[in-house]
Write a structure and sequence with these properties.
M1 Pyruvate Kinase, Domain 3, 42% helix, TIM Barrel, 3 domains, alpha/beta, eight-stranded parallel beta barrel, 498 residues
Length: 498
């Protein structure tokens, strides 16, 4: 009978144990050789810590298709390669020693003692404490909460969030101003004192805003549908025409001037996608290929994503440079938007040094939200290593709009793996429990998503009227998940439902 279902992998054929041992030894040798080349690129000066060494080993290993080997190991009760992110060589050495015992042969490697085997986990936990502050005793993943504007004038609001379980307060520097930010930070310090826990502050500098400004539509109720055309204008006023009745001025003129015919443009977190159809001086016409059912309204202050276009923008704007003085004064961590290349980290370090912030007290969280940042993630981690406490935020909103919703699920997994291999704390961000935060009732899908956040060192909730309830729920959820899984590893707590 014909079937459309993919066939299960064929069971491995019986083989002598010494053949499996030989293949494992060859794999280890290949990993070491390839890792040396990767390490030379990641740390050309030769000054790399244990995390970067393990990252190079991990990247080398994952350049191989390990699926056939995994099946062979599983049939002998030896498979552990699927959980080796933080301990590549120790795991290979342990598996080789076990395979050698099965083959009745001397092992060319010795399995490390437990402390050395789990050293990567210990290193990651220490880095998370250094960056984010210590986790509460009942869960490993910290809870970060974006403070609303009213938190500046309401210390009780911040104290309430802390008592419900907030560990990190996020201040979004795209809104409000330095007076409000100082007040928010002061309220967090007060809440820390009252709760007896060290709460930390992340201040997220805005970066370049790629948004619509003034817009023109055929009428107030008009919605854009597939097949419609939008004219984006670099400067001046919107210019609607009969063939392109929707028009918007963009916040950055370079957005228009760097586009090429065929480039994709996504609007408002991917609610609409089109391709550049034609170009003229200072403007681009985009033909809509896909839009949300019922159409999409064209509004000002909505985000634009250009996944195919190299904008060449500096991630540090003049506003950001001015805001750094307040960040240095008030924050424990700085959130860095639009970082894509290692040189972007140097740019920030130079700006901090000009303001005297050369010490490593201020942590740095790189927001991964563009395809270049994903491709350059190992190089970004290597460049940041040793400078100051460092973490990565998986900014899933912009990232999904840039790489496409279809690829987001696998990419957020891969980012978690890379961070774990390097011993870098990860923040799971964007629209976590969004329905609960806004409306008081979570969806089934977002509950599953929130549970998956237990594999990160921190999860971020956005502001909203029911954020307090969301904190309490995710606090309980993360605590329960910690009993079942650590990163990719099931911990096998006893089940109580059967």
């Amino acid at each position: 009978m014909m079937t459309d279902q993919p066939a299960l992998p064929a069971p491995p054929s019986a083989e002598p144990a010494d053949r499996l041992l030989a293949d494992l030894i060859a794999l280890r040798a290949a990993v070491l050789a390839e890792a040396g080349e990767r390490l030379a690129r990641l740390a050309p000066g030769g000054d790399a810590g244990a995390g970067i060494h393990n990252l190079a080993n991990y990247l080398a290993l994952r350049g191989h298709d390990l699926r056939p080997l995994q099946r062979r190991l599983m049939s002998r009760g030896l498979s552990s390669l699927g959980r080796l992110e933080s301990r590549v060589l120790p795991t290979l050495d342990a598996v080789i020693e076990a395979a050698a015992a099965l083959a009745g042969a001397p092992s060319p490697t010795a399995a490390p003692d437990p402390a050395a085997f789990f050293a990567g986990e210990t290193r990651l936990a220490a880095e998370a404490d250094r960056l984010l502050g210590e986790a509460p005793g009942h869960r490993r993943t910290r809870i970060m909460v974006t403070l609303p504007s009213e938190a500046a004038g309401d210390p009780g609001l911040v104290i309430d969030l802390a008592r419900r379980g907030m560990d990190v307060a996020r201040i979004n520097c795209a809104h409000d101003g330095s007076i409000a930010w100082r007040a928010m930070a002061a309220h967090v310090r007060t809440a820390s004192s009252l709760t007896g826990r060290r709460l930390t502050v992340l201040m997220d500098i805005a970066g370049p805003k790629i948004r619509t400004e003034a817009v023109a539509t055929p009428d107030k109720k008009a919605r854009i549908a597939a097949g419609d055309a939008i004219r984006f204008v670099a400067e001046g006023e919107p210019r609607p025409t009969a063939d392109a009745p929707f028009s918007a001025v963009v916040s950055l003129p370079d957005l228009v001037t760097r586009l090429a015919v065929g480039d994709r443009v996504r609007y408002d977190d991917g609610k609409l996608e089109g391709v550049v159809e034609s170009l003229a001086p200072g403007e681009a016409v985009v033909r809509v290929r896909r839009a949300k059912t019922g159409g999409v309204k064209l509004k000002s202050e909505k985000g634009l994503n250009l996944p195919d276009t190299a904008l060449g923008l500096s991630p540090l704007t003049a506003k950001d440079e001015n805001d750094l003085a307040t960040v240095i004064e008030c924050a424990d961590m700085l959130g860095y938007s639009f970082v894509s290349r290692p040189e972007d980290l140097d740019l920030l370090e130079d700006a901090l040094a000009r303001r005297g912030a050369t010490e490593s007290r201020l942590g740095l969280v790189a927001k991964i939200e563009r395809p270049e940042a994903v491709r350059n993630l190992p190089a970004l981690i290597a460049r940041a290593s040793g400078r100051r406490p460092f973490g990565v935020m998986i900014a899933r909103g912009d990232l999904a709009a840039e790489i496409g919703f279809e690829r987001l699920a696998e990419m957020q997994e891969e980012i978690l793996w890379i961070c774990e291999a390097a011993g870098v704390p990860a923040v799971w961000a964007t629209q976590v429990l969004e329905d609960l935060v806004k409306d008081g009732v979570p969806s089934r899908g977002e509950m599953t998503d929130a549970a998956m956040a237990a594999r990160a060192e921190c999860v971020m909730l956005n502001k909203g009227p029911e954020v307090g309830r969301a904190i309490e729920l995710i606090d309980r959820l993360l605590s329960r998940m910690d009993g079942h899984v650590f990163k990719k590893t099931p911990t096998l707590r006893a089940l109580a439902s059967w």
